[in-house]
Design a protein that fits this description.
Helix content: over 70%
Oligomer: single chain
Structural class: mainly alpha
Shape: rod-shaped
Number of strands: 0
Order of helices and strands: HHH
Distance between the termini: 26 Å
Number of helices: 3
Strand content: under 5%
Radius of gyration: 24 Å
Largest sheet: none
Number of domains: 1
């Protein structure tokens, strides 16, 4: 078995925390970057717009209400994804600060 000093343990812990911060940051950026460009989101939005126009011409109020509800749900989903992305980026910065603090305690 190898000897692990306190400094080695703190550096290893700081490296792991830094790695987790980088992963969290990358996942947060990907979540924010691909928030709007999702193909499913665009497809559902286009279909909902067609439903609304069909509802206007045929005077079907229930269809209009359901399509409006669907568009509202899609908007909320988009906001939720943005919130998750921002949360992951904030967690990443906190992990960066913790890693920096651990390293400065050794040096």
């Amino acid at each position: 078995m190898f000897q692990l000093t306190t400094n080695d343990f703190i550096f290893t812990l700081a490296g792991i925390v830094l790695f987790l911060g980088v992963v969290s940051f990358i996942i947060g950026l990907i979540t924010l970057a691909f928030k709007i460009t999702s193909g499913d989101y665009a497809k559902i939005s286009n279909q909902s717009a067609k439903l609304i126009s069909k509802g206007l011409t045929d005077d079907v109020s229930d269809l209009m209400r359901n399509a409006s509800s669907l568009l509202e749900s899609l908007t909320q989903m988009s906001k939720t994804r943005a919130g998750v992305g921002m949360f992951l980026i904030i967690v990443a910065f906190i992990l960066f600060i913790v890693a920096y603090y651990l390293v400065t305690q050794v040096l």
